[in-house]
Structures are given as C-alpha cells and as structure tokens.
Design goal:
- This protein is 44% helix and 15% strand.
- It is of the alpha/beta class and 314 residues long.
- The strands form 2 sheets. A 6-stranded mixed sheet has the order 2-1-3-10-4-11, with helices on both faces. Strands 7-6-8-5-9 form a 5-stranded mixed sheet.
- β6, α6 and β7 form a beta-alpha-beta unit.
- α3 packs across α11 and α4 packs parallel to α5.
- The chain is globular, with a radius of gyration of 22 Å.
C-alpha cells in the first residue's frame, strides 16, 4: 500500500538533523560504515507504480524485478507501490505518493495535466505504433472486419471494454467505433461493460458474458502464445490503426529530493536495459519490449485530443 509521504519525510528529517552531532565523536571504521548505512537508509525511496492493466501476480513480479534493477542503477532505494485501479494511479501521482509511474497514454496525459512539470520520459519500442484489437465470442458468427466502417456491423451486440481509463481497452477502440457511426450509449445491447483489465476482458468474452470486447493487442497475443485462450470460443475480428501508448511519467519533485539531473538519470537507466544481459532481458520480456526508447510529452497530443472528445479529459 502507498504510505503517507508527509510522515515519512518528517521522521527522516529528524534523523538527518542528528547525523552531524554523531559525526563529531570518534569512531572506528566499522562505526563509519554503520553511519553510511544509516544515511542510505534515510533516503526516501523512489516510489514506482503502474496502472493495474493485467493479472496482479504478473504485475507484482514485473515491478519487483524492475525495482531491484533501478536501485542498482540510481543509487537510491526504490519501492514498488501497487494501486487498486487506473484512477488511483493518477491520484497517487498527483498528490506525490508515486514518483515514477507506468501509464497508458490516456492516464499519462491525465496525470501530467494535474502536475506541472511532469514529464513523459520513456516508452517501449512497440509503443510508438501500438494497436488495440476487438475480439468476439465465436457463437456470434462474426467474421474479421477490414475497414473502420465495417464496425457498424457490431450494432446490437453486447460489448465490454477493459478499464474505463484504459487507452487500449477503451479510449481508442471507442474512438474508432464512434468514427464508424456507433453510439456507445444507444447502439449496443444492454449497458457497455468495463472489465477492469485485459485478462478479465478475454475471459468474459470466452464465457459468453459479452459478445464483443476491446483490449490491448500485446496482451491478446501474449495470452494466445501461452495457450491461455480457448480459441474455439473467442476470436480476433479487428485491429485498430496505430497510436502511441504506454510510457513512463516522472514527477518533477524527484529533482529536489535526489538532485539536479535525476530525471535524466532515470531515463538513461530505463533506456539502458540491455537484452544481451539475462537479468535485464527478463525485465524487457516481462514488459513485452525489445527495448525502451526516449519519449516526450508532445508525442501524446493526439491522445489528449481524443480524450477530450469522448469526455475523459475536461
């Protein structure tokens, strides 16, 4: 759980005020080493978070390994702080409980708009041109669609998205459905659903709870490769045009806490993950990336425009 930063800062400040007094007393080499350890432990951890877009066990494994890598590269303690949903990740970043967050495009834009000076710094190689997919229960008899206009055939079907704030599981699929002339509120049977994450989306369509669903293409392909999808019950029917997606956003306060240039240091650490090093390749594989590459705020202007269009950004 995310801890209150204010109380932690107060406690550590009191500890640091006592350090110069201890430094005046004679000490052995062992005592000096102990003092250095205390100083290191007094550094406030870099709080890393992520939108919970997949199964929680997979997310926990990924970020535990990443935290270990970042600690070694940055020379500061790093703590992964799980959040309950997409909105909670944005809020935690806004109030300063999270310093570095893995956001989808929409939540990244939402977070940056609420924190002056926040920066998008790194994305995966696959995020420059990302895709969502639409899947259908095979019982519908729906065939693959080729054009955006073909999406009009989905009128009268039941539909679920992922999280309400998901770029790949809601924002961009809804955008293209609207381009095809479909009204999300009136053209689908029953209320449109929100599963919460991409893995849940697949299972809902597989079970026949919903006839059609939108999700992240990377998760869909990964679950197919794992044999985790019953292909006799669910099939791919459409792939969206490309758009920019996931990225790391960093809070400007880290420069004050860890020193000028720290944001550049974090960017370098992430971009330096090397697939030729087994431990680092494992992190990249867990992210579904060949590499991390630099990015910047301006790359998500299109996402902000679509977010405003459908009412997810005011």
């Amino acid at each position: 759980m995310i801890m209150a930063r204010a109380s932690l800062v107060g406690s550590l400040s009191g500890l640091l005020l006592l350090l110069p007094l201890g430094a005046c007393a004679p000490s052995t080499d062992g005592q000096n080493a102990g003092d250095e350890q205390n100083i290191t432990e007094a550094v406030i951890p870099l709080a890393v978070g992520a939108i919970p877009d997949q199964d929680p066990e997979k997310v926990q494994r990924l970020y535990s390994k990443l935290a270990t890598y970042l600690e070694a590269e940055l020379g500061v303690p790093v703590a992964y702080e799980p959040v309950t949903d997409y909105a909670a990740a944005v809020t935690a970043f806004k109030v300063g409980d999270l310093d570095l967050v893995w956001f989808g495009s929409l939540t990244g834009v939402q977070a940056r708009l609420q924190v002056e000076g926040a920066e998008a710094i790194v994305q995966r190689d696959i995020d420059e041109a990302f895709h969502s997919v639409l899947i259908a229960n095979t019982g519908t008899g729906l065939e693959p669609l080729s054009e955006i206009s073909d999406l009009a055939q989905l009128k009268g079907r039941t539909l679920t998205f992922g999280s309400e704030s998901s770029t790949s599981g809601r924002l961009m699929p809804q955008h293209y459905l609207q381009e095809a002339g479909l009204n999300i509120e009136t053209d689908f049977r029953g209320e449109v659903g929100f599963s919460g994450n991409h893995d849940a989306t697949i299972k809902l369509v597989e079970a026949g709870t919903y006839e059609v669903a939108a999700l992240n293409e990377q998760v869909w392909e990964a679950r197919l490769a794992e044999g985790a999808v019953d292909e006799s019950r669910v099939t791919l029917i459409w792939r969206t045009p490309p758009y920019p997606n996931y990225h790391w956003v960093i809070h400007p306060d880290v420069e004050e806490r860890y020193g000028e240039g720290f944001i550049d240091k974090v960017q370098t650490a992430l971009v330096s993950l090397d697939p030729s090093v087994p431990e680092e390749k494992e992190i990249l594989d867990l992210f579904g990336a060949g590499a991390f590459i630099p990015t910047e705020n301006d790359n998500y202007a299109e996402i902000e425009a679509v977010g405003r269009q459908i009412g997810k950004i005011q």
